[in-house]
Amino acid sequence: MAVDILKEKYRGQVREVVLGATKDEGGTRSHTIKVGGEKALPFLHFEGEIPNRPVVAMEIWDMVPDEWPESLKEYFKDVYNDPGAWAKKCVDEYGADMVAVRFKSADPDLNDTSADECAATLKKVLEAVSVPLIVYGCGKAEKDNTIMGPIGEAGAGENLLLGVAEQENYKSVASAAMANKHSVIAQSPIDINIAKQLNILIAEMSTPLLDRIVIDPTIAALGYGIEYCYSIMERARFGALQGDKMLAMPMIGNICHEVWSKKEAYLPADEEPGWGDQAERSPAWEAVTAMALLQGGINLLIMRHPEAVKMVKNNIDDLMKDNSY
Amino acid sequence: MIIIGERINGMFRDIAKAIREKDPKPVQEWARKQEEAGAGYLDINVGPAVSDRVSAMKWLVEVTQEASKIPLCLDSTDYDAIEAGLEVCKEPAMINSVPAIPDKMDRVFTMAAKFNAEVIGLAMGEEGIPKDAESRVALAMELVANCDAYGIPIDSLYIDPLALPCNVGQAHGPEVFETLRQIKLLSDPPPKTAIGLSNISQGTKEREIINRTFAAMCIACGLDAAVADACDEELVATIATARVLMNLDIFCDSYAEVYRTRNL
User: Fold this and answer.
1) Tens digits of residue pLDDT in A142-158
2) Which domain holds residue A192?
3) How many domains, in total, are found in chain B?
4) Among A198, B94, B123, B252, which residue is least crowded by beta carbons within 10 Å?
């Protein structure tokens, strides 16, 4: 008697979001990138289609990242003062699928860079590379609300992925996305209910934005509560596959932001000899964090270390091999 | 729980008139209204007063589909009428209903297999509605076995444990809840369950609160679908709340709104 192999059947699927815009679509990118669209849990190709591979974006700053450890800075030492060249190096040398520009210098406590200067920097990066871009403000909501409009305008038509919209502060980013045809990162504090509600709030501003939202469920680094993030992501994916359209957006994880603020990544070996060589340890910490979250269903990873990027891209190659039967 | 909107039924005067005069407007208005209110299916019943049920069913199906894209639940004891309706359905439909009586099961399951339709099976046999849960479950098992024999996926079968008006058949209440629970143990995957919700309050003066409470209690026992008044906003909110409390839908502040608009 033939064995009937049980396969889970799902009625929903993750929404497919397109990032970037080519000339025909009103932008200047050489290609667009699709994320999401899966009809099964991560990499279970035998249960449903996984049409798009997870994407690795590398993060660049609009200022010299003094707080980064030397072992990481080493890789970008020739390009720190030129965000365009930095972006180009990430794409050409280190194989980044996308570039995430963080306007760190806009922080009022740092350089308090003006909106116009940020917009000019964005234009330089757009000229330097042809991949779709992700854009982050400085992380201080009050200032970010003033720069997102001009940044969105400077990149009009490029379908940037703009971050971040939060429950208490989503209107400026969502408006910038609506006005200039960009996509939005909707960030919630490791809280599935808020993740869902935020999507509803954004959709109330503009229904078409529903297909241009990427959820940032907030991730944690390995050793710092990654299991909580994993279970939230898993719950969102089950929800999406069971037909919850308000949780069916692809997910993004700001891996580097979490990992590189942890001592396991930034401390040199002479301070913690038992932890081993930093050149090996730090990228491994970033890569393992990313790989764990890939299993949780993350679609877009923002990373820093070129060696970690290489490891994760190899891992994605393996995971995308068809295992259907 | 999925609401099968009950309003396109010849028992209602406006629909009976529409069928008589071949006026699609009232039918299409109710189709749209129920879909917007949160119905997942639309029940289509030509009612008792129509002489030619076959052509009436065909007409109702056609005009409803012009106004709404959600699937239909063809409701009649006249299987020729149901077959005529299935023939013109654009999407796979649901057949409402078949009792656990051999020749009727043969007719309905054959038709369901042919048209890829789902089926509501009634937990009643030749002797009518049983008194207790055990007998209802035994009849449900007969429906499951027959459904499987005709090659229809078990999760396309909805067992209706049959609720009686609470003012005449009060003792049936607990039996219905128990039946709903036990049906989920009959097979793997288990059949689904459905109920004619408004039956419970027939002839009472407090119909709405009885319907809403009954819905919440049935959901707690695993009910999957109900023929009900989709335009009763409080009922829909009750269902949405019960689904959240049963951990069937993920909570958020606007959960009731999400439940209403999930088909749109």
Assistant:
1) 999 999 999 999 999 99
2) 16-319
3) 1
4) B252
